[in-house]
Amino acid sequence: MTDRAPLHPGLNLGPRHGAAHEQAETVLFGFWVFLMSDLILFGLFLGTYASMANPMGRAGGSGPQELFSLASVAAQTGLLLASSYAMGMAGIALKHRPSRLVPWTLAALGLAVGFLALELRDLSGMVVAGAGPGRSGWLSSFFALVGLHGLHVAAACLWAVVMLAQLRIFGPSDAVKTRFLRLALFWHFLDIVWIGIFSVVFLGGLA
Amino acid sequence: MIRDNMANGDEERREARSYRKGFSLAVLLSAVPFALVWTQAFGRGVILAVIGVAALVQVVAQFRYFLHIDLSRQKREDLQLILFSALVLLIVVGGTVWVMADLGHRMMPGMTGP
């Protein structure tokens, strides 16, 4: 491993990137504090869901066995994980090989959009089948939790588009580099949150 | 665009290996619980235990290989913040689930099980 201690979570640009590397310490730690507060938010939604996942919470409506598709959730998990990996490769490209930065970012973006498309298809299918968020307390908490994560992923996709635009307009300036590092941190964080969601909600519900 | 820098090939390879390792571990730790739920090969208790352990290990693996947070570095604030957040979550979420399940059990026995 390197002999230099990293300054912040995620991939460090290293001293070769000069000012961008030094500036990154403060802004990435600040962003890390936000991510951890976001983690508390997701935890509370998950706790609410766990309190609702019982026959009383389902209010006589359908349960996980009728509403969840294991194959679709597996596909979503694969897409989001591959997207997280692609964003990691984009970070390495930013550090060492700027020519590969845009292709890897586009790959991460495309995979995340694929995740969102599958998730949206599942959720709208549930609403059409009469199992929308208004059907029961369990479904309210389900749509709140999964929808919150989906909104986060959608916001991350928008952010990635903005970063690609900034890269085109400003080039890889110091500010653009540290913004990219924060985007990558957010991207990995959302896949970690998804581990909790698919384990508790989908696998726990279908076990 | 700026030029590619070929001088740090070793570092680049090492970092790419870290992400590949994390990715492989994550695939494995997702595939096992999904396969168990798919095949229903064991009892519900065993499957739930495997899901829980696989999820925890995968979270640690992604923190380690994707976010580069581990125990051996000088900078510990990031890890301490994760552990503090985990403690807050444990108290708040664990407490919520416990209290609500207990309340449900006392008020409507049989309706609030899984």
What does this structure look like?
- The complex is a heterodimer of chains A (207) and B (114).
- Chain A is mainly α and 207 residues long.
- Chain A has one domain (15-206): Cytochrome c oxidase, subunit III, four-helix bundle (Four Helix Bundle (Hemerythrin (Met), subunit A), Up-down Bundle), CATH 1.20.120.
- Chain A has helices at residues 19-52, 55-58, 64-67, 70-96, 101-128, 137-170, 174-206.
- In chain A, α1 (19-52) packs antiparallel against α6 (137-170), α1 runs parallel beside α7 and α5 packs antiparallel against α6 (137-170).
- The radius of gyration of chain A is 19 Å and the shape is elongated.
- The relative contact order of chain A is 0.17.
- The model of chain A has no long low-confidence stretch (mean pLDDT 93).
- Chain B is mostly helical and 114 residues long.
- Chain B has 2 domains: 1-68; 72-114, no CATH class.
- Chain B has 3 helices and no strands.
- Chain B has helices at residues 9-39, 44-65, 77-107.
- The radius of gyration of chain B is 21 Å and the shape is flat.
